[in-house]
Amino acid sequence: MVAASGSLAAIPTRKEVFAMRRLALLAASMLGLSALCGGASAAEDKTVNIYFWYDYVPAETIAEFEKQTGIKIVYDTFDSVDMLTTKALTGGSGYDLIMPGASLVGQYAKAGAIQKLGKAAIPNAAGLNPDIMAFLARQDPGNAYSIPYAYGTTGIMYNPATIAQRMKDAPVDSLDMIFKPEVAARFKDCGIAMVDSPEGVMSVALNYLGFDPFSTNEAELRKAGALLAAIKPYIRHFKSGSIMTELASGDLCLALGWSGDAIGANARAADSRNGIEVRYAVPREGTEIFFDVMTIPVDAPHPENAHALINFLLSPQVSARFTNATLYPNAVQAATPLVDKAVSDNPNIYFSKDILKRLFAAQPRDPKSLRTVTRLWTSFVTGTD
Ligand code: N2P
Fold first, then answer.
1. 68-82: b or e for each residue (b if 16 or more CB lie within 10 Å)?
2. pLDDT of residue 353
């Protein structure tokens, strides 16, 4: 995953690849061969290949879509968005629908890696929250390429009993829990993990230090890198996809991770009646809010099926089921009344105004500072200089 981030430097080459591919398509159609290229109106196979975050599509949703449409969903998962970026920018992934963070859409569009959505095929998009759409339009003008699926925050996931045994007055709602070496050291034995999210964690660290979370200043970035390097001895792993189950089973006691996974860990522990509790805190110092969006690769083999799936996922019942299962909110307005009350009333899921004030939205980085972030992150995770 870390190695994958390195390939971000290769973007211009990918752009050329897409330009060449477009030329080849044009040449083929001029030769009257467009039918062979699978023109949009040609009947598509009854398949849609999706590449989404792990645990992000309930099994009932897949079954219902397949039954209603006869289109089979092939669901591949990732647990680090850099894996997706590498595939998306290389092209030829075979995916029909992918899920980057909203802050990556501009980069993918500029590289020619994704296609504009056919709005007519997504009537349910009319029900999306206009404030969220206006906000996302700042990164994807006219919401041309992407549709929001879920959002959430990066914060402190912890086991209150295990933490209290080791530190009575632990500052559980503060990033001091993880970023202060003398505090983190107290929890090393019960297990601290962190999501493998270079840009996300770096923005949180910069903000914690009092800098602009998207600072491009090399000295500030290095200070954030030094903050992380100092706590490296206390971090057990960076396996984003394992954090939820390990907190639920008591194998971890603390993590810097994503809101729904924390609340989901607590639900899993409750289901298994193992007496473990997992709590989530939005850091008092502030943190990032991310939006995970759906977009279609330029060379998707089944773009019509992808549109049909987007529209299905935006229906109020299906969106509410998603939020009830994953504990990440969605932007479909008519879904909120259908969400379990315990979920829609939880201020860590559907944020209170108070929490909202502490959040900053993920922003795209310029290539130079992205390279610095990638380098600092790699040396943090691998423990090398
Ligand atoms: C997967 C959650 C991933 C959210 N369960 C990260 N944007």
1. eeebebeeeebbbbb
2. 85
Query: What is the H or E stretch that residue 262 is in?
Result: helix 259-272
**In this structure, which residue's CA is closest to atom 3 in ligand 1?**
53
According to the model, what pLDDT value does residue 42 have?
61
Find out if CATH 3.40.190.10 is the number for domain 152-289+365-380: yes
CB-based contact 153:288 (threshold 8 Å): yes
Distance 322 CA to ligand 1 centre (A): 12
Mean of all residue pLDDT scores within the chain: 90
220-226 contacts: CB < 8 A, separation 24 or more?
Answer: 221/369, 221/372, 221/373, 221/376, 222/376, 224/376, 225/376, 225/379, 225/380
**All structural domains of the chain with their residue ranges:** 14-151+291-350, 152-289+365-380
Per-residue pLDDT reduced to its tens digit, 205-242: 999 999 999 999 999 999 999 999 999 999 999 999 99
302 CA distance to ligand 1 middle (Å): 25
The best mutation among 53, 243, 246 to test binding of ligand 1, ranked by most ligand atoms within 8 Å of the C-beta, falls on 53
Q: Residues in the chain with pLDDT < 50?
A: 1-41
Residues with CB under 6 A from ligand 1: 53-56, 152, 258, 260-261, 290, 292
* Total residue count of the chain as it appears in this document: 385
- How remote is the CA of residue 110 from the centroid of ligand 1, in Å? 24
How far is it, in rounded angstroms, from Cα 255 to Cα 33?
A: 54
- Residue bearing the CA closest to ligand 1, atom 4: 258
Residue in the structure block whose two tokens are 């398949």: 47
CA of 229 to the centre of ligand 1 (A): 25
Query: What pTM did the predictor assign?
Result: 0.88
How buried is 83 (Cβ within 10 angstroms: 0-12 exposed, 13-18 middle, 19+ buried)? middle
Buried residues in 196-210 as b, exposed as e (16+ CB within 10 A): bbbbbbbbbbbbbbe
Residues 6+ apart with CB under 8 A from 274: 248, 249, 250
Q: Which CATH number describes the domain made up of 14-151+291-350? A: 3.40.190.10
Say whether 152-289+365-380 and 14-151+291-350 share the same fold.
yes
* Residue 264 Cα to ligand 1 middle (Å): 11
Predicted pLDDT at 27: 41
